[in-house]
Structures are given as C-alpha cells and as structure tokens.
User: What shape does this take?
Amino acid sequence: MRPDESNDANAATFDRKIRRSEHAAIDFTTGLAMARVTFTANLQRHVSCPPVEATGRTVREVLEAALADNDRALGYVLDDQRALRKHMAIFLNGRQIRDRLHLSDAVGDDDQIYVMQALSGG
Assistant: This one.
C-alpha cells in the first residue's frame, strides 16, 4: 500500500531506489538483482569501504556502482586505466576473476564479490 503523498517522510521511505527482501536486494529502477560487494578488513584500514550492494552485469559495472561516491576507494582498487591494480585481488563467488584488465567477468543475481589486497612473498 502506497503511503500518503502528503507525508514526505513515508513517501521518501517508500520510493527509495533500493529495497531489501530476506533473499535479495532489488534495484526497482532497473529490475536487476544486486550483487553484494565486500571489502576485507585489511583493505578498510587504508580506505573506508563498507560492504555495499550494487547492480551491474559485469564486475566493472558493479564495482563502479558500488564505489560511485567513494573516489578514494575506487582509485585504490583500480588504476588510471580502470584496470585492477596489481596489489589487488577480486573474487566472484569464491573464485578469482579472470579478466583483471577489463573486469568483464559476468555477475549474476545475488552474486558475492570480495575485494582484497593481493598477498605475495614467503
């Protein structure tokens, strides 16, 4: 049931772009299910990037939507050509993405994306 138009607070709550159900977050402007993007605690020590849900058909689209208001985090994860920085790793549903340059790996409904710093050494 739609709230009374005269009640601005209720109307704003009803018209929010993102609504959550117990199973998925849906962007009602596009009808797409949203992927959950999680940044490791280690990464969050360097830049503020709380978990977020965002729409997109590729890892690039989801990341750019998730970090649209966070230029510092976007610049930490992606280089000036918008490729994944060498010190970063992205996992999609527990598997490392294949395309580090274009981030074209397909993202489906309710997928989980994990962004972390790549570790190396012995």
Remarks:
- Residues 1-24 have pLDDT under 50 and may be disordered.
- The beta strands are 18-20, 25-27, 32-33, 35-39, 52-54, 88-92, 95-96, 112-117.
